[in-house]
Amino acid sequence: MNFQQLRIVRETVRQNFNLTAVAQVLFTSASGVSKHIKDLENELGVELFIRKGKRLLALSEPGKELLGMVERVLLDTSNIKRLAEQYSQRDEGQLSIATTHTQARYALPPVISRFKQAFPKVQLVLHQASPQELVRLLLNGDADIGIATEAVAAVDELVSFPYYHWHHSVIAPVDHPLHQQTLSLQTLANYPLITYHQGFTGRSEIDQAFNAAGLNVDIVMSALDADVIKTYVALGMGVGIIAAMAMENHHDTQVQAIKAPPLFAQQTARIAIHRGHYLRGFAYHFIQLCAADLSEDIIRQQLHPTELI
Amino acid sequence: MNFQQLRIVRETVRQNFNLTAVAQVLFTSASGVSKHIKDLENELGVELFIRKGKRLLALSEPGKELLGMVERVLLDTSNIKRLAEQYSQRDEGQLSIATTHTQARYALPPVISRFKQAFPKVQLVLHQASPQELVRLLLNGDADIGIATEAVAAVDELVSFPYYHWHHSVIAPVDHPLHQQTLSLQTLANYPLITYHQGFTGRSEIDQAFNAAGLNVDIVMSALDADVIKTYVALGMGVGIIAAMAMENHHDTQVQAIKAPPLFAQQTARIAIHRGHYLRGFAYHFIQLCAADLSEDIIRQQLHPTELI
DNA sequence: GATGCTTACGATACCCGTAAAGATA
DNA sequence: TATCTTTACGGGTATCGTAAGCATC
Question: Does nucleic acid strand C have an atom less than 7 angstroms from the CB of B51?
Fold first, then answer.
């Protein structure tokens, strides 16, 4: 048994049992992949995969049980490597952050610029992704930190902490009649609406609020990010509902937020980490730049619950 | 990085940084051990050991942190192997039980004979050991199950379950005057005593009881097991204090237990397992033969707390 | 016929152990 | 001096990739 064999087993599942794809992802040959799987199965005396002829179809029962252990081993070895980097190059290395457009565009810029000042040698990788993709990146170990409002709190394998709270704002062209009216869900429902895609930036909360009020709304368009939404609102296609911070500190001349108390429930952007993932020292600093009360100790306690010190 | 390197790191600590000993234990050459350590340190870019000249003295800071991860990796790989055996040879294999003399001699025989009937092909290895040694065997992965009254409950890395409760008995030669007296700590303290070694079979409870009563006692001899104690009690060297089950079902003609309510607090023999250690199916059966209410589900829950099913 | 898996085989790198030299107590 | 660690070096093995053959869709 060796690490390459374990990597291959894990990647075979991730690549839907296509060994050619596995070989490409792991930068090796298909023949080697094939042989490694055979060798491991021989050594363990168990068939890890269900086959149909030569093709692999799925994990066998023992294969399923094994996969969990394999993933733990590989998680630990990646932790070992990061731990070593932490000591060999304390303030150098890579920090990989997976986040949504909203956070990357409106919440993170000040954090990131302060972080870069503190750790100029750390290479920042910003994966922009959907909340679902972001979860996958964290679970695969391809990202150290995930930041999003959606999805992350519901995944057991992730630890997450509140980052900040925010509300949705309603925006309309500067000359729109809504600016003169008292804003309510009812009045809003009279206009065609433009807002986020399903699963993005609190969209579910918006739907729920209208549903609860028994209102049918006409969402003429949905987009991934506030910039796109603002563009189409400016064109007069409808009234926009976007995250409030997407309007702050911006001098949009064509559209304007409607001044009114929030119509939709408070949202919480969260910072998420894969349970058991070893974080470099500067990663803890990054998190503390986001939320000053999240100290390294507090995070570690949640991340590595079995550590007893 | 490979498994052999990790094994060597772990074993180096266990062998007090004597690489020659490491090589012997791992059945390889000292030169290989030396090179593997160098290679790993090079790859990680960190010195894992503190050296004085050529000799290794201790773990460095990163080495200490690394060790925990290394041990998890090796624990998981041994779990992988056992899991594979579980499927490839369901009712064959090895079950390694570490236990004290008292349990091996008086409590386990019926359990073991029933187990052997149920799993004739399983090779039973009975490590007889002191409670401290028993803990080490469990933590090293050299034993699957530990059974003892002492020590195991105090170790965080072990999960333990109550097996059965027992009391100490006072024994004396058949013609001893104590048989006619009312038994109390005071009367007992008038005689020279023979009992277990420190750290064995509830000895600490005995000391504590006399201390609490403000009594000074003359322990003329201490031994590891009840058989030895009984022998010297029969010779008239003193009054014995042994585990009650060491007198049951035995036709000792020269010594006899004194009929009286128990003088010392109740003791609990416990079944202990290393947290995270994968147990074969028959190991769960063994435990259930000891204590019928300890089902596989209940034990698994404690052993692998992170599993979410 | 296109894609995917396996076998054969040669080149390379890796791992191990012996022997000898160098450090340390 | 005895014990321990490291370096040098040779033999063996494992791993990898190319190429070709074969199965599957």
Answer: no
